């Protein structure tokens, strides 16, 4: 049975990884907001909030399905995100969807293609993602879309509040550990630019792996 309680002996290491993945970008007006598909419907919620704040006039939701999302979003992540944003008052006509991407590189390259087909060639984009996906999304975007001015944003939730919303602390920790590994591994494979990883982040990652949080490792 899932629990939402973060074990006290793991808190410091989980908080270290949580903080590392936050790029700390200040949201500012840009040409397009791109909501990256995942199991977290909060991405669509926050994209709608940013739209209503006037941060961007256009939205792209991108994502097919993954093993972690197929049950929750059977018609695809982007489709469900779009429907949710419309219920929150985002006009349907400003939302485009990209329904084929199964990884972050495809999220970005396919979104750029969708926009180009619609005659939109943005100079700046905001990537809206899960909190612990920010750094990987940024590094991937700088690799596959280097000419774009990119910033990252996520729901500004404290760690414990985010875990409570997901309702599964083990899932959150496993995802954090997996995304941390991908920062270095994806750069090594040429999927993303390199990002500095401080020693305290490496140490926290290794301790969480040793504690058994390995289900999202490559």
UniProtKB/TrEMBL annotation:
Residues 43-147 form the DUF218 domain. One of its GO terms (cellular component) is plasma membrane. CDD domains: YdcF-like (cd06259). This is DUF218 domain-containing protein. It comes from Kibdelosporangium phytohabitans.
